[in-house]
Amino acid sequence: MRIGLKSKIWLSICSIVFTFTFFSYYYFPLKQEKLLVDNYNSEVQNLANTVALGVKISLKNQDFEGVQDAMAHVKDDSRLQFVSLLSYDTIWDNPKKYHIRKMVVNTVPETRRPEPEMQSNDSVIVKRTEFTTASMSGTIMLGLNTKAIMESKKRIGITALTVSSVIFLIGILIGFMLARHISRPVKALRNAAEKVGEGDLNQQITRINKDEIGDLSVAFNKMVGDLSRARHELSEQKKLIEEKHEEIQEKHREVLHSIEYARRIQGSILPPQKKVKQYLEDSFILYMPKDIVAGDFYWMAEIEGEVLFAAGDCTGHGVPGAMVSVVCSNALNKAVNEMNIHQPARILEKVCELVMAGFHRNKSEDEDYLLDGMDISLCRLDVKTRRLEWAGAHNPLWVIRQTSESPEIIEIKADKQSVGNSIKPFQNHEIQLEAGDCLYLFSDGYTDQFGGSEDKKFNKKRFRELLLSIQSESLPVQKDILIQRHAEWKGKSGQVDDICVFGIRV
After folding, report:
1. Residue 304 DSSP code
2. pTM for the structure as a whole
3. pLDDT at 427 over 90
């Protein structure tokens, strides 16, 4: 339930008023009455003590008239109900059992003879003082009426009622004034603020009070004025932003169109899946560009019954990487098809020359030459004899062979140089494959993917273990497992690089 400011002010004032009213009408009168009764009880007890002392002295002196005088000491007190002398007599019921009997032997005035066991009540206060002498043991019992107390209580009650009524009326008046003084301007501010929230910036508050609430009204008016000016400026800026946004959208569409065209161009340099299956029937290619186009690419050529195939990773990704991949792919085609170079190491050396010439790079003439290049794993396979030649730039070749116990990886390490950044010769490797061997050529995109519970790279160790664990599966199924495992590892993270994995079973 929502409680308004005016209600809160009234609740606060009423709480204070009722608190003070309670103390003035109930608590303080109650304390005063208790104090009055306590003082009256003390006074009666003191009178009883005085009479008892006079009686005790008179009995010691055998002055029986003095006993009467001592008791008559209080007879002129208008409040006196009685003052009595009680004696204690021992009554024997049998030689071993007795009890004490109290007996009134003298009373002033004589006409008001009380019972020995009489107690205080609403009309009389009774006090006792015991004494003991050689001739007598007894008690002085004194009773005073409560008429004076009742009159005092009545006066206290009237006074308390008057004071509490005044406090209540003053509190209600103060509450009314505060509620009117505070809630009205605050309510006006609230209504104006609601209209401003709805978009009406023509609201102005007339300053009524010369206090903090009045200052708040002035600040509100200034705020509304600032908001009005800001809205006008924002409106102008919005128009400008919309114009710029439309320009950006147009540029974006042009860029996407260009990139999509670049994808088609890059796709034209990649060998069709039909051609790959024609020469490498039991194979798969996992190709996942980070962006629309990629720096990774795969390549294949058939020369006199032998198959040349490769997985390349050009510097960068996206459009820059794709441009380099086109240059490198064309260089491979030129070296193999036009220059008739078929040995993998010699092919890479010639591609290096062509790429460097294509980018006009001469280290001796230009120290700021481009560092673009290509890491690649290049194979030449005689399908009939399973004789394999291989050369690599940074990217290795993994051969997984089935043994009697479990599959094992044969890794052929690549030269520590990139194609396009060096003119050093590459090492050519010759391998005799066995039936059922699986070859894997890959870029570093799969192993460099960040993910997992600790957001780390997948790394080559996990990739090696994954490939070993799926050797019993067909190559299409292996591809699906690699895709699924990559998605699980990546999670909600983005892909960090282009991915290219080429798998072949001989």
Report:
1. T
2. 0.54
3. yes
